[in-house]
Amino acid sequence: EEETRRTRRAKEEAERKAREAAELARRVQAEREELERQLRRGIQPVVRPTLEEIRLAKAKVQYDDAMFHFAVAGIAGSGKSSLINALCGMNNSDPNAAPTGVNETTMEISRYVDTTHPEQFAWYDVPGSGTLGTPDWQYFNSQGLYVFDCVLVLVNNRFTVTDQAILRNCHHFQIPTFIVRSKSDQHILNLMMDMGFDSDLEDTDSREQFFNIARERYISGTRQSVKDNLATANLPDQRVYIVSKKTLFSAAQNRQPMGLIDEVELLTDLYSVAYRSGRFA
């Protein structure tokens, strides 16, 4: 009789495991079919990583629970490496600086220690979208952006599909994001040239007038463009920080640079997010 009971229990346990396996397979198939439906409809799905994927992603970037980890992402050529150097208090010529160039120089996630906060902050230069052969909607997961404590998204005048996917995924995972437009000094100069400015012909007063008008147009145009792009993508409204690497570098060195736009506010808000995390005593 005891043998019969053991046999019955073993059979019931086997049947239970078979039902659980069948239910798991059903859920996986349903999720796969839903992802395929979303892709056919042009919707970029949010895919939650497994615990093992999270563990491996943290190991890859040398994640340290005692530090705060900032990732800088965006399209190739948006100025990610120069921005990281400025935020870390380094010139592009510094031997420890992130490499910069006309073409995308970042093909693997690279880690940099903030020289002004070496025990607290780590910065990561993420390969630009469009350089790795990865579909836009998979960029967030393929780069392991879900393990970072904060993500800066560098944008140009119009959001890419990848920009939208990063912001949407960060919102889903409750990761703080900062939208940043860099190279502002160059963009303002380009606007001045479009307005008819000629450095060989204009005097100082004329140059200042051209600069002030172009600067205001650039700032207001950028803010409105980001607002419109967020609305079009059905993303929550948020501020865009308009900066130039030279001015940001000086601000990170606690200097008082000329031509400030949002550099000081960006640094202040980044540090505030880090310190509010409760990671530092």
TrEMBL record:
Asked if the record carries the keyword Chaperone, the reply is no
Sorted alphabetically, the keyword list is:
GTP-binding, Hydrolase, Nucleotide-binding
Q: Which domain of life is it from?
A: Eukaryota
Record carries keyword Chloroplast: no
The residue range of the signal peptide is: none
Q: Recorded GO terms, molecular function?
A: GTP binding; hydrolase activity
Residue ranges of every copy of the IRG-type G domain listed in the record: 66-263
Ranges for region Disordered: 1-22
Instruction: Output the Gene Ontology cellular-component terms.
Output: membrane
* Chain intervals with Basic and acidic residues compositional bias: 10-22
Question: What protein family does this chain belong to?
Answer: Belongs to the TRAFAC class dynamin-like GTPase superfamily. IRG family.
Q: What is this protein called?
A: IRG-type G domain-containing protein
The organism encoding this protein is Pisolithus microcarpus 441
What are the leading ranks of the lineage? Answer: Eukaryota, Fungi, Dikarya, Basidiomycota, Agaricomycotina
